[in-house]
Design a protein that fits this description.
Blueprint (H helix, E strand, L loop, with lengths): L26 H10 L1 H8 L5 E6 L2 E6 L2 H10 L4 E3 L1 H4 L2 H4 L8 H11 L5 H19 L7 E3 H18 L7 H18 L13 H27 L6 H7 L12 H32 L1 H15 L13 H13 L6 E5 L3 E3 L2 E3 L4 E4 L1 H4 L19 H5 L19 H16 L2 E5 L7 E3 L3 E3 L4 E6 L3
Parallel strand pairs: 2-8
Antiparallel strand pairs: 1-2, 3-5, 4-12, 5-8, 6-7, 9-12, 10-11
Helix pairs in contact: 1-2, 7-8, 7-17, 8-12, 9-10, 10-12, 12-14, 12-17
């Protein structure tokens, strides 16, 4: 693997070098593995260097694996790229929300939504996050066998419903869970170039996808309709979106269709990513009792059994490190893709217009150049000194640049407060003989859940 990288440069008149990579004769196999086993395929690709060409049937795919190049794609030269075809394929489910929209429309929507994620606003959500986590864990009993992933999905869905919509989504949780499952199952199919041509046909897969979308749309339309009729500020995201005006642009507000798409994106993406990160955090703690003991000691000293709040975050540095290290090893978003709008050079390698460029949090966050003994769970990688010693884009679980996740601050607070609330009362033990399998669909899920045995701690 290459150990040096230089920033992108102006493209000279003569053609630049083509990156190394697998033989073109392997194109069908590469395409299959990218679709079915993306973590393994991208990990193997990294052995060719920091810029790699992956022939994959009808797609020209380039894989970049150095912080300088990732920063260039996401920040420095972001105007030369747009969302990848894989993300665009999700419009069938998510519509024109922040995750899938592009250009001026995306910038307008982000301006309208940004105030709801201001730091002070997020701090106000902290009490709800901890309260709901505290109520959720009271349902558990000592020695109980649970699917921790399913439990955390239910908890984070309830938090998203309350903080973003002042609505109890638990009554609709079964419908939302089925819809999300359908989206994940259909994700790879929708990436195929002919899939959009089949959207309106009465084939079973497309019928399931349309029904999944309709189930969530019905829930969101009901919330929006009731809120417009009520015309009262609930202090949540939806109230802000309803009242927001684009003062920097056309002065207009969001239509019901735009509110619907943004709400669906926030419901599905908002609780899915946090529940995945927390699931992997508890899995890693169960396998690393020394780290678990340090976490419990910090929680006991800082909280003494009470619920945490936003003001407690400075007193929970190790809790934050545990979550950060869990997202290093098991990033909820495991890859980022972009589509080139013009020719672009990464170092001495040319990436032509209309190509896919991939980078992978899964790969670079396990790169020994930046993380010695990378497979080892070590929360002390996230001390201020250790962070400062690494390049920024060797770790980017929430993306970067103008498309960085708008809910990053929300997710960090929710993750830390839920981890602190649950871990101070419970130890999680893996069910005997269970070995988790990875399911890299839209996010990085455990394929068969996370069966755990709960042990109540004595405070």
């Amino acid at each position: 693997m290459s150990t040096q990288a230089t920033p992108s440069q102006a493209i000279p008149a003569r053609a630049l070098l083509r990156p190394p990579g697998p033989s073109r004769t392997l194109s069908p196999l590469i395409f299959y593995r990218l679709m079915r086993h993306p973590l393994e395929m991208l990990s193997e690709a990294a052995h060719y260097g920091d810029v790699v060409y992956l022939p994959a049937m009808w797609r020209r795919i380039y894989f970049i694996n150095h912080p300088d190049y990732i920063r260039d794609m996401l920040v420095t030269s972001a105007q030369k790229f747009e969302k990848s075809p894989a993300i665009k394929s999700m419009k069938t489910m998510l519509g024109e929300g922040l995750l899938t929209s592009e250009g001026d429309f995306h910038l307008r929507q982000r301006r309208l939504a940004q105030p709801a994620f201001h730091r002070q606003r997020i701090a106000g959500y902290g009490a709800v996050m901890a309260q709901y986590a505290g109520e959720w864990q009271q349902r558990w009993t000592d020695g109980q066998h649970v699917d921790l992933h399913a439990e955390l999905m239910g908890l984070t869905l309830r938090v998203v419903g309350k903080t973003l919509f002042d609505y109890d989504l638990t009554v609709d949780s079964a419908q939302i869970a089925r819809s999300l499952e359908t989206l994940l199952q259909m994700f790879r199919f929708m990436m195929l170039p002919f899939a959009r041509l089949l959207e309106d046909l009465p084939i079973p897969a497309m019928v399931r996808l349309r029904r999944a979308r309709e189930r969530v749309e019905d829930i969101v339309r009901k919330i929006i309709r009731e809120r417009r009729a009520e015309a009262r500020d609930h202090g949540d995201l939806l109230s802000m979106l309803l009242a927001a005006q684009d003062t920097e642009g056309d002065g207009g507000s969001m239509t019901d269709a735009q509110l619907r798409d943004e709400s669906i994106t926030l419901i599905l993406a908002g609780h899915e990513t946090t529940s995945n990160a927390l699931t992997w955090a508890f899995y890693l703690l169960a396998r690393n009792p020394d780290a678990e003991a340090r976490l419990h000691a910090e929680l006991d000293a800082a909280l003494a059994g009470r619920l945490p709040g936003a003001d407690d975050l400075p007193a929970l540095p190790y809790t934050e490190r545990v979550l950060a290290e869990a997202m290093r090893l098991f990033p909820p978003a495991y890859a980022v893709g972009r589509w080139t709008l013009e020719d672009h050079a990464f170092g001495s390698y040319l990436v032509p217009k209309h190509s896919v460029v991939l980078s992978s949090q899964w790969v670079i966050q396990r790169d020994a150049r930046f993380y010695p003994d990378p497979e080892r769970f070590d929360p002390d990688r996230w001390t201020p000194e250790a962070r400062a010693a690494r390049p920024k884009f060797s770790y980017y679980p929430f993306g970067g640049g103008n498309r960085v996740c708008i809910g990053e601050g929300f997710a960090w607070m929710e993750g830390i407060l839920i981890l602190a609330t649950l871990a101070q009362h419970w130890r999680m033990r893996l069910a005997p003989g269970f070995k988790p399998a990875l399911w890299p669909a839209v996010t990085l899920r455990p394929r068969n859940g996370m069966p755990m045995i709960l042990e109540r701690r004595k405070l």
